[in-house]
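Students often ask why we bother encoding 3D structure as a string. The short answer is that it lets us treat folding as translation between two languages. Here is a chain of 74 residues written in the first language.
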Amino acid sequence: MNKSNKSNAEYNFKETGRVSVAEAKSNFSEYISRVAFANEKLIITKRGKPVAGLVSLEDIKRLDTTKIITNPRA
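And here it is in the second language, the structure alphabet:
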């Protein structure tokens, strides 16, 4: 099934890579472009542990809509 045909509840937000905080800081502009235009989803790690995620605004909107669909009282 083509991702564009999936409903919000079915959308898979699987990560596409992990980078350290230091690497993210050094290459922030590149990573912004990758999530915005290449549909990547990056996990940012600190001392090897996940601490944040970098996703496109489109993905944030999907997450927000999915939250409303799956839990209307949230």
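Translate back mentally: Residues 1-10 have pLDDT under 50 and may be disordered. Keep this in mind for the problem set.
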